[in-house]
Amino acid sequence: MQAFRAEAAQEGVAADQSVAGALAAEFVLRRNCSLSPRGLMAVFGSLVVLSLAFGVGFAALGAWLILPFAGVELLALAAAFVVYGVHAADGERVRVAGDLLTVEVTDGRTLEVHEFPARWVRLVRREDQPGAGLARGWRLLLVCRGRALEVGRHLSVHRRTGFEQDLRVALERAARVA
Fold it and tell me: Strands of 110-117's sheet, edge to edge?
């Protein structure tokens, strides 16, 4: 979960732009997925072949009950791989364009789009409570007019700090232009 990529014109954040709606900065924050879909299918296929080979081998020796349990095992494994695959593309796209901050949050099969006026957004660091079961250290929230949205949840603390600094710069520049 530590992948971080900042996409923007000229060194992470563009210079002040006078054209309304011009893209000042864009940050794409995604999970760090170690397996591609092709790799996932290759691993699953090899596990199917191995499990069925053992099941058929034991069935040939007279232990035929191994085969149904191998099938149940493969169904459970397939379910786990489907859940992994659904959340492999989770992430956030944070875009500062003109006086608008847009955050697209992908979680599973849902896409939520949140829009905020860039000059009114505050970035707030909220420390996690000790013993809350969260090992993230702190959260980064966008707060505007009573609404709060967590961003950077898939980043490590180190990368979240860098993202926070870059987003602050982008928001300051957007506020000066607007």
Answer: 4-7, 23-30, 91-97, 100-107, 110-117
Paired strand residues for 97: 23, 100
Length reported for the chain:
178
Tens digit of each residue's pLDDT (9 = 90 or more) over 102-131: 999 999 889 999 999 988 999 999 887 665
| DSSP labels, 75-137 | HHHHHHHHHHHHHTT-EEEEEEETTEEEEEEEETTEEEEEEEEGGG-EEEEEEPPTTSS--S-
Record the tokens describing residue 117, joined without a space. Answer: 């006026």
- Is the alpha carbon torsion for 160, 161, 166, 167 positive or negative? positive
Share above pLDDT 70 across residues of the chain, in percent, rounded to a whole number:
83
Helix (H) or strand (E) holding 54: helix 37-60
Give the residue extent of every domain in the chain: 4-33+89-177, 37-87
Cα–Cα distance between 57 and 51 in angstroms, integer? 10
Distance of CA 21 to the CA centre of its chain: 26
112 within 8 A of 51, measured Cβ to Cβ: no
CATH architecture, range 4-33+89-177:
Roll (2.30)
